[in-house]
Amino acid sequence: MRFRIRPRLAAFWLPCLVSLGVIAAGSAGHAAEDPLVGRAIAGFTLPDFHGQSRSLADWDDSKLVVVAFLGNECPLARTYTPRLMKLADTYGPQGVAFVAINANVQDTLTEIADFVHAIKLDFPLLKDATGEVTDLFGAQRTPEVFVLDRERVVRYHGRVDDQFGVGVHRAKVQRADLAAALDDLLAGREVQVAATETPGCYIGRARRTPPTGSITYTKHVAAIFNRHCVECHRNEELAPFSLASYADLEAWTPTIGEVLRDGRMPPWFADPQYGVWANDCSLSAADKQLVLEWIDNGAPEGDPADLPPAPKFTTGWRIGHPDGTYSMKAPYTVPAEGVLDYQHFTVDPQFTEDKWIVAAEARPGNPAVVHHIVLFVVPRSAPDLEGSSDLSQIGGGGAGAQLLAIYAPGMPPWQYPAGGAMKVPKDSKFVLQMHYTTNGTEQTDLSSVGLKFADPKEVKQVVRNGMSINFGFEIPPGAANYKVTATSKFRKDTLVLQLFPHMHYRGKSFRIEAFYPDGAHEVLLDVPKYDFNWQLRYDLAQPKLMPKGTKMVSTAYYDNSADNPRNPDPTETVRFGLQSFEEMMVGYYTFIRPDEQPHAEEEVAATSPAGGD
Question: What pTM value is reported for the model?
Answer without folding.
Answer: 0.76
